Amino acid sequence: MAIFCVGVNSAWAADSTSCHTLTDPQVAALFDRWNAALATGDPAQVSALYRPDALLLPTLSNQARTTTAGIEDYFKGFLSKHPTGRIDERVIQSDCNVAIDAGNYSFELDGQGWVRARYTFVYAYQDGAWSIEHHHSSLLP
């Protein structure tokens, strides 16, 4: 018995050619890009890294932010503390057009010592660029 497959499913072919994956260092560089945006002190530069429909569950607020304006508003307050961030430990996962960076990070705020938090960044590839789709950050217990 012989089985012949002729042609290619065009939907699958389109998906496979538009599938973008990142290496661990490339995902880590997305955090570095975000941290560099924090260093500018400009909330608009930080919020520009998030998708327009992103979800931010921030460290220092109990209010979920789901719009660019809301995300920018959160960072106005956060950036007034002059944060400097570093990754303490992380797990990175990457697949077709999505990457996850999760773990623990620390922020020095106003030069007054380090605050530790858990974090998750979910990055999505859309319209030729990687942006933050979901960001959750909460203080360590």
Number of strands: 5
Overall structural class, as computed from helix and strand content, comes to alpha+beta
The global form is globular
Strands side by side in the biggest sheet: 1-5-4-3-2
Order of helices and strands: HHHEHEEEE
Largest sheet: 5 strands, mixed
Task: Give your account of this protein's structure.
The structure is a single chain. The chain is of the alpha+beta class and 141 residues long. It has one domain (19-139): Nuclear Transport Factor 2, Chain: A. It is built from four helices and five strands. The chain has helices spanning 10-17, 24-40, 43-47, 68-79; strands at residues 50-57, 84-95, 98-108, 114-126, 129-139. Strands 1-5-4-3-2 form a five-stranded mixed sheet, with helices on one face. Strand 4 (114-126) and strand 5 (129-139) form a beta hairpin. Residues 1-15 have low confidence and may be disordered.
